[in-house]
Every structure is written in C-alpha cells, then in structure tokens.
Amino acid sequence: MGISDPLNKNIGFMLLNNYCDDNGINQMDSANKIFKIVGLIEKTDKYYDTSSYGCIFRAFVHNNSNLPIKLKNTYAGTIYLKSEENVSQFTTKMIKKLDASEYDIQENIEVYSAKRFKQASTFSKENIINLVLLIVVSTIVVYNIFNIIFQSMISQIGLMRSIGISNKKIKTMFISMSFMYITLGTLIGIVFGMIFSYVGLRIVYGYSSMLTIQKLSIICSFTVSIISVSISSFMLIKKSMKKSIIEAIRESDKYEKKSKNSNKKIYEKSEKILISIATRNLWRNKPRTILTMLAITLVGTMFILNLSAKSLVKKNMEEGIMSRSASMSYGSVDKTVEGDVVSSDHLFYKLDDNLIQKVNDMKGVRYIEPHFYNPYAHILLSKDKLSKAYQDELDIMKSLYKVEYNNEYPLLIRGYSDDMLKQRKGFIEKGENILSPTSGEHRKVILVNNTNSQITHSFDAKVIDDVKIGDIIDIKIPVYRDGIEKYGNFKVEVGAIMKKSYAAGQDGNSQADGAQVILREEDYKQLTGQAEYNKLFITVEKGQLYSVERRLEKLTDNYKSTEINGKGEELKIIGAQQSSEERLSVIYQILTLLILSVNIIFIMRSNIIARRKELGTLRAIGLSTKSIKKILIIESELYGIIASIIGSVIATVNYNYNIAELNKTLLKGGYTRTVEHHIPLTQIIILFTIFIVIGFISIHVSRDKIEGESIAECLSQND
Length: 719
Description:
By secondary structure, this protein is an alpha+beta fold. 50% of the residues lie in helices and 15% in strands. It has four domains: 78-107, no CATH class; 152-251, no CATH class; 259-323 and 572-719, no CATH class; 325-567, no CATH class. It contains 22 helices and 14 strands. The strands form three sheets. It has a six-stranded mixed beta barrel. A two-stranded antiparallel sheet has the order 1-2.
C-alpha cells in the first residue's frame, strides 16, 4: 500500500457493504473510519504476485468492534481432506448439500489447474495422434528390420527343407526365434525407454518431477513387438513355403529384370545415369520402400503440423487473435493498465498524470487512451424487456453461482474522450456518435447490447429486446457523494447502438456479463463524482508487445494495486504448461525421427551387403568408389525427399484448411481479426534438412562395406 513503517500508524478505511435487500434490490452501505495498525502478517512473495494471482489486502478486527456498517455474516476458510483422491466428489457433494455455488466451495485453484492441464495434455487430440503415430511407425520399422533379417534366411529354409526338415518344425523354429527377439528386444527397449524418459522428463518438466512407468506403456511395447515380428515371420514363412526348394536356396535380393542395355555406356559417370541407377535400386524391394516412405510421410506430415501449429498459436495469442475471449476482445488495444480487480475499487483507483505521461513516452508505445471504467453498475429493466437469449444466460448464472436478479442486471460503464469516440465510430450500427454535449433532458449514451453467450459461445445474444434509438433506459452507478460511496440512479437516452463486433472484438469485454454503456467522459465525471482516469489503453508498435509489457511491469512495480492486462495475458498463466507441451511435442518428433533413422540406416546397410557383387562389378568396369557412394547417397536421400515432398503438401493443405475453419468460427463469433494463410516454410525446411542429414549418416555408417573390401572379394559373393 506504500505505507512505510506502518506499525502504530493510523489508516483511514472506507467500509463498504454491497448486498441485496429483501426485495432483491442492490444496495450499498459505506462509512469512513480511522483504524490503528497494531500488527502485520507477512505472506510469501508469490501471494503478492499480482500479475498472476491478484493481491487481496486484509484487515482483521475484533468481532465485537462497533463498526458503522453491518458486516456480512459469511465464513471463509480452508478444508483439509484426509485423501486428495476424491476432492472433486467432495466439493460436488457439499455444493449440493449446502445449496451453495461453485464459487463458494472449490478445490485449491492451483492444484485444480494443474490437474486440468495434465488431463488436457493426456487426452488431447495432438498427444493421442502422436502416440498412435509412434506406435504405427515403430511397427513399420520393426517389421522392415525383421523382414530384412528373415529375408536373408529364405535360402536357409530351402536348405532345411532339402534335407528333410518338416514345415511344422521350421515354423516352430521361427516362432521360437520371434519369441526370443520379442522378449529380449522389448526388455532392452524398455530399459532404454526409461533412460530416455528420465532425460526427457527433466527437459520437459524440470527436476521437481518424478518418473513413473505405466503398465500401459509396457503393454504397448510388447504389443508393437508381437504384431510387427509376427507379421514379418508369417509373411516370410508363407513366401518361402510357396517357393520350390531350389528357388528358395537360390533366393537373393537381386533385380527381377536385368537391364537390356548392359554395355559399358550405362555406367558413364553422368549424373543422370547415377540418379537412374539409384532410383532403380530404390524400388528393388517395393513393399519395403512403400512402407518406409509411408512411415516418413506420416512422420513428416505430423512434424510440420505439430510444430507449425504450436508456432501459429503462440504468435496469434500474442496478437490477441487465437486466444481466450478476454484477449481476443481487445481489438486495436494491445495492453491495459488498471486497478487490480480484487484489491481496488474502480471508483477510487486512479492513474496519476505522472504515470500516464511516462507510459506515453515509453519506447515502443504508439499511442495511449486514458478513460473511465466501472464494471459494477446495473441496468434497470423489467423482465419482459430482456431478450430470450439473455434470460437463458441468466438461468446459467443462477444455477452455477446462485445469483438472483430482480429487474437489476449487470452493466459495464465506460467514459470516453471525444478522440476515443471518434476512433470507434466505425463500430456504430445505428444512431450517431455522442460527440456533442447533451442538449436534451437526458444524457445520451452509446449502448453495447450484445454479450458473450455461454450457450452459443458467440456474441449473438442481445440483452435488451427491440431497443431503439431515443429509448430512455434507467441505470444505477456507484457514485462518490458527501465523502462516501453509494448508488446513484439515472435516466439516459440511447443515442447510438454498437455492432456486435464491438463487444466481441474491441476494448475488452472480460468483465461484461451483460450490456455496456459508453458515456462522454464529462458526463461520466458529473454523474459519478470521479475526477481522475482509472484505466489506460495502450497500443504498441508492431513486434513491441512484450518489450513494452516488461517496461510497464517495471514502471508499475510500486503501484501494488495496479495490474496489467490485454493481449497475451493467457500465456502468463498457461505459458509454463504450453512450453512443456511444446518440449514434449518436440521430444515425440525426435523419438519418432530416431526410429525412422534406424530404419533407413538398417535398410541402406542391408542393401549394400546384399549388392556387394553388383557394387564390385561397377567398380570393375571403372566406376569409382566416390561415384558408388554418390549413387547410394542419392538412393538414401530419395526416401526422405520423396516422402517429405508428399508430407509437406499434405501438411500445408491441412494446415491452411484448419486456418480457414478457424477464421470462419472467429467471424461467426463476431471477432473482426483473423489468422493469415501461409505456408509453414520454416518447418518444411527443417524436415528436409533432417532427412538429408539422415541420408548422409546412413551411408557414412556403412562405408566399411563400400571401401573395406577388394573388387575380387565383392565379385566372389554368391548369388
């Protein structure tokens, strides 16, 4: 509060009591009293972190104190349960039992938020897709690897059949081998998975977290192994049994068709010829190539969609486009400075001229708009004047918060300067702007007749039914008269009516549970007795939102009942969770790419081993080792390049389709600002770079099979 050495000092309080009388009419009692400070209770710094949680100033007095107003007979306290497992059931039960509202009895808000974030993360569409993709890719990769292993055993099967071993025994042998691979491989995989998870956990959530391996994860691991290895074994046995013994013995991974042009010219050191050889080799084993490219396409598509979606959400949340309705409703306004909603009274909070001038001179600020603001007024209407849509909204409020309305409904009051009124002229749907002083009996106002519907999640709901220009409406506003705060009742004339796009997309509406009324600031001052501005709109230069916010936080550090709001505020609350989700998504992508890398490396190495004689022949007719490497590099790169192109096209189309659908929803809801369509080039470039690097690595790790053997050794290999 800015009081130095407060002990034993006197402090003046205005005691305020807002309540509804027996007739359901809103009343306000207030009185001034001097208190002496005889003690201080200190709390942790986090309690005073007004940017995130708000700060409530509390004064404790003896319950027998003779106070000039009647205090509410309410109880506030903390309930400690024996077990934390059934908190939600307990609160639901007590709300029903005591006929209380959800606002009156609630779980620890931080714990509740953490649980909700965890649940949203676990069952989010993105994480489910990532998990399914990981399982599918793992299955494809394991199948490819075991197919390669078992493919080399077809000739052995032929030999076993030639010496009289029955088909049943061969099948039994493969089942035993598969079981061994599944058991040992999965157990080793689980150990590496735990190590990887431990490292990932520390990266994503920090060192305060604990590693737990769920049974479902182990079951998934064995399921992937069983499915992929079983399919490989089944297809191999089926294929080998169809062949004759001689065909099986002679089985190799060679071309089904030999090229007709076998002269030496085909091996000229031409780039086109090298590409031609690499392309033909790529399709040597069509099923394996198709499966590999399918896996890369799936991973590439999700890689682009996931990372680009995260980037899109963050960028547009900062600009107040893709966010919660509070940020999205600010429109041209970027940040606000105002009184903390839980520890200041809008009628008495003030922004001094010195603070306003410092903000105006701040680097990155384009212009400012100081004005008056009070969300605790009421509009006086008979129930038959309300629209059906708004009555439905009030029924929800009644069921959730036990709020009763008796011809007095929530109203947000604003007092704007002529410059501010001119800036918002384009939002007027009916009537004329109220730039001139009122000449008639009643002051003219601009009515905002739309409110955010909790039923339709749009701003289609109107408050007053069939309101017209010139209508006289009754309003009740907190005013300052004779040294105390009280309600004042006034009649005002509707001079203009705003479009619903104003309520949805301009000046913020987070505290508007009903209609809004805009007065000329001089009229507002005369009605309320409030002389100094209590809210400041700030519009910043492009790209300066967070730098201006940091300067605002530093500037208002000594104004403890002041808070900063506006665009991007949600990132303060969910920012840590979003950052964790982003890191988790990146880890998913890295893990999937690592699995694919193993697949590509394994395939290329097996191809080189299977084609040693062919590579020896190419070297024998004059092709250099460098050119052979070039053929193999092109071949390995083609896996990633072709699949990445397909994945990029699919991801870009899907990405922009989602933006189009989002924009339709925004426009339908009354918001005026939409997301721009674009191609996620950054993510596409990253994807191509990753697969190009993987292609080079796959050849590099097999260089011993390319350079380490003489031509004679290669040519001596059997077909």
